[in-house]
Each structure stands twice: as structure tokens, then as C-alpha cells.
Amino acid sequence: MHNTHMNNLAQFRDLKGWSQKDLADIVGLNQSTIQRAETEHPSAKLATYKKCADVLGVSLCDIFCEQRSDLEAAVLKILSEIPSERHQEVLALFQLARNRVHEEDE
Hints:
7 helices, mainly alpha
């Protein structure tokens, strides 16, 4: 029997508004291969996860990390809509907000 745990692959795919078939077509695989990867079927290969991560603009760590809170998922959704060359600007804004919160707490 295979593991029914869902990793974050489907979540990142959904953030792009893609179906399993859409992702499969983009990475050059079958829809059933994507389905097996999303459910962590024993036949799923690391190369499949890597191809998917690359086109989704995330890391393998992002795909396999623990479930995220609603806030973390919302932040990732917003970040996925911002061009990657602007991510450092967004990070700087987060750091500025964090510093302001720490100052207010003192």
C-alpha cells in the first residue's frame, strides 16, 4: 500500500492555476506521473519532483516541507505572482516590517 500523504506539489501547482495535465504537459510527463508524485506513490521519482519544482519556481525543500499555515500559504501565493528578480525587494520589506514589530515590542 502506498503513502496517501500529500506533499506540497499540488498546492504549488494550484497556485499557478494549473491542472495535473497542465503541469504534465509543461514538464513533458504523463498526468498519471504527476498524480503519483503528488500522492508520494513509491514509483514517483526524484527527477519528477525536480522537473516540477523547476517549472513551478520552487525548491525541492518547498515541495517536501511540513504543511504551511494559512498565512504562509497566502504569502507564498503573493510571492509566486511577483517576478523572481523582485523577490529581494519583497524580502527587504519583510525585514523592515519585522524590525518595526521588534521595535514596537521593546
